[in-house]
Amino acid sequence: MIDAITASPSPYHAVETARARLRAAGFVECDLTEDLPDGPSRGFAASDGALVAWADPAEDAATTGFRIVGAHTDSPNLRVGSVPDVGAAGVRQVGIEVYGGVLANSWLDRDLGLSGRLVLADGSMPLVRIDEPWFRVPQLAIHLDREIRGDGLKLDPALHLTPTFGAGEPEEGALIGAVAAAADVDPGAVRSWDLMFHDLQAPALVGPAAEQLASARIDNQVSCFAALEAIVAADVARLAGTAVLVLSDHEEVGSSSATGAGGAMLEHLLERLSAAAGVDRVGHLRRLAASVVVSADGAHATHPNYEAKHRPEHPIRMNGGVVIKRNANQRYATDGRAEAFARRAIESAGVEAQVYVHRNDLPCGSTIGPITATRLGVPTVDLGVAQLAMHSAREVCGAHDIADLAAVVGAAFTV
Ligand code: CO
């Protein structure tokens, strides 16, 4: 997990990490602009920050449903803007956009690197990453912020999150020039970019028994990793249907994009898998009617310093088992039928189950679950690993829960 999360500072890198793992396990990469292979297969297709992998059962691939597990590759962060070279007071800075619901305070006073991709004149999109501490967002000194004692820290994202980039006056092209040079790319060939910042502190196992994982991007690369390991380990002789892994981008901003769960990538790919298996449209819709989706994403552990923010009848513990998430208002997709399916998988995996329900007086977060259920018309369960500090630049989760989640996803492919 630590290797995968370290290798994946951006959604593009997360897809690259998954690509390498799938290739090593014998999955065949398919180009979406070409035909998929006929007959049962283990394959995958990737597009930007999204990836879909599949493993057909050894028998009856054309008539069984899909067992789909989804997770998201993106995490809230700070992203490089379209006019990156800014500055003030003799300090060079980088113009940013805030991506998703960041806990802004968590980005202060950290050594930041940068990653993502450059888009070149020839259409190629080399991945880049800079793991040197070129950037920081320094907090205002307490002596200059007297209100902080009474009112707490107030951060205006338009003013207070702009990272520094060394000393001097802003110089047009300086940032992209430096990034291109670090990536061994001619700066003149750069036409555009998708770049974002990451904390350089390495993930760590914390606690006296190393029982928790502290890291960036636990939401949701823990689920990406567990689901990926589950499909790689899936025994095609035991699959209850075609096992499908979908890693979507843009969940943190609502999933409405070509590579987000609101997009058509998964839907189109499932249809093409059926077509490649010789199944007509009605046959494909029958397969969908026999399908299940597992939406894997982070869950809120009960915070020891804020117990009152949680429902007492739903205590959630890190390393306390996989969390099934329910919300009557469908912010999580789980209904009774889907919960019963999840419990079957959890039992089969020999893992403990916990159930999370948000307080009625607080707005509940959401996942790719309701969106995927809406697009496909397939019963969906939302579940995942309990964590603290969701959307912080450094979150924490139970270290043992990761293998449990992989086991539950594996069971969901077979029960
Ligand atoms: Co998430």
Helix content: 10-25%
> What fraction strand?
25-35%
Shape: globular
In CATH, what is the class of the largest domain?
A: Alpha Beta
Identify the CATH homologous superfamily of the largest domain.
Zn peptidases
Question: Could you explain how this protein is built, in words?
Answer:
The structure is a single chain. With 415 residues, this protein is α/β, with parallel strands linked by helices. The protein folds into 2 domains: 2-75 and 216-412, Zn peptidases (Aminopeptidase, 3-Layer(aba) Sandwich); 77-199, Aminopeptidase i, Domain 2 (Roll), CATH 2.30.250.10. It has 10 helices and 20 strands. It has helices at residues 2-6, 11-24, 148-151, 174-182, 218-233, 265-276, 281-289, 336-349, 369-376, 401-412; strands spanning 28-29, 42-47, 50-55, 66-72, 77-88, 91-99, 112-120, 127-135, 164-167, 190-199, 204-206, 212-215, 242-248, 292-296, 299-300, 322-326, 353-357, 380-384, 386-388, 395-398. Helix 2 runs parallel beside helix 5 (218-233), helix 6 (265-276) crosses helix 7 (281-289) and helix 8 (336-349) packs across helix 10 (401-412). The longest helix has 16 residues, at 218-233. The two termini are 26 Å apart. The structure holds cobalt (II) ion (CO). Residues 72, 219-220, 251, 297-298 line the site of cobalt (II) ion. Cobalt (II) ion binds next to helix 5.
Provide keyphrases for this structure.
415 residues, alpha/beta, Aminopeptidase, Aminopeptidase i, Domain 2, 2 domains, five-stranded mixed beta sheet, 10 helices
